[in-house]
Amino acid sequence: MKIGVAKEIEMGERRVALIPDTVSRLVKQGIEVWIEAGAGEKAFFPDAAYAAAGATIVSDTAQLWGEADILLKVSPPRERENGQHETDLLHEGATLISFLDPLGSPALIKRLADRKVTALSIELIPRTSRAQSMDALSSQAGVAGYKATLIAAAALPKFFPMLTTAAGTIPPAKVFVIGAGVAGLQAIATARRLGAVVEAFDIRPAVKEEVQSLGAKFVEVKLEEETVAAGGYAKEVSEVAKQKTQAAIAEHVKLSDIVITTAQVPGRKAPQLVTADMLAQMKPGSVVVDMAAEQGGNCEGSEAGKDVVRNGVTIIGPTNLPSTMPVHASQMYAKNLLTLVQYLIKDGALALNFEDDIISSTCVAHAGEVRNQRVRDLLNEPVAVK
Ligand code: NAD
């Protein structure tokens, strides 16, 4: 059994799929680990540390991809500078484990299936307690939420904490977090640690207690409809509920120094929650960090990868925040992958039991077939897969 770790080629991607500590654990289990030369460099894990952990450093990209039984990555495979697609480097029957953006890039999943590669999409790890230690969506969202607050604090022309000094008293900054999922809760916790007064809103009423336990105030909006879908995720709400929500949050946006938005509905465009009218009511110097900018944005006028200034309000649309903290983001991602790989390998060989919910929901391509029904629907492939 040979596990390969590729060097990421996605622009701006600094994470690596395994770190030396996780490599040594696999090596101890008798698994051969190949690391592409320089794979950990941008995350500050040098080749020498991987070699010391028992990995083989491989300089030839085609050899690494072509000979790995399981190839581990962070970003979905893409076309290389020489025009060759990374997918085409894998051998038939190989297994790829990575973020694959299956609903955003169904054609990639089809390509992997056509190549007869077994593909496991990390985004689809079920959000169950059994799979918690494999849940990279959560580990990376936590990193992103933390960093979003730091970005906001750095852009704010004010202090976060209350200060009583000889030069006068400084009131604490007011932070409003919209969307209290994994990223939002970490953004709240970080803002609280920095001394801000924090409020938060989410359409899932169940998060109220979690928000309060972090020392933040929960903004309640009574909606006359179910807002939670299967699996605990948010549902797309009706137009009436949307208007009611917007009216309720407008007051809180107006009084905030910082608004951090994290609202997402899986498989849908992010809901627009902060309007241009609300932005116009904010004090100049205020900051909005729209963590959903890449998914269409929660804030009107936000742009992914850009800082936009409207009436003195800075709207930041960060992209790939976990990659800006590559050491710990890689460490956590590597732990998620280690747990998954150890779960998949039985007696030194890959054992895929499709009766198992972790495997059946995560495996999107196997033996020439696209296995995920939603991906098949997007590809207009009629045959259902059990
Ligand atoms: P996400 O990134 O899909 O969404 C972020 C937040 O936005 C969610 O809390 C959602 O309710 C909220 N949101 C959506 N539409 C909104 C709107 N119109 N207005 C305000 N807020 C809106 O969510 P996530 O952080 O990946 O996780 C969400 C769910 O998954 C939660 O139930 C969480 O507890 C659950 N979860 C479970 C596990 C586990 O059991 N192992 C692990 C992680 C997450």
Explained architecture:
- The chain has 386 residues and is an alpha/beta fold.
- The protein contains twelve helices and 19 strands.
- It has two domains: 154 residues, NAD(P)-binding Rossmann-like Domain (Rossmann fold); 182 residues, 3-Layer(aba) Sandwich (Rossmann fold), CATH 3.40.50.720.
- Helix 4 crosses helix 12, helix 5 crosses helix 6 and helix 5 runs antiparallel to helix 10.
- The longest helix is centred in the middle third of the chain and has 20 residues.
- The mean pLDDT is 94.
- Nicotinamide-adenine-dinucleotide (NAD) binds next to helix 5 and helix 6.
In short:
This protein has 386 residues and is α/β, with parallel strands linked by helices. The chain has 12 helices and 19 strands.
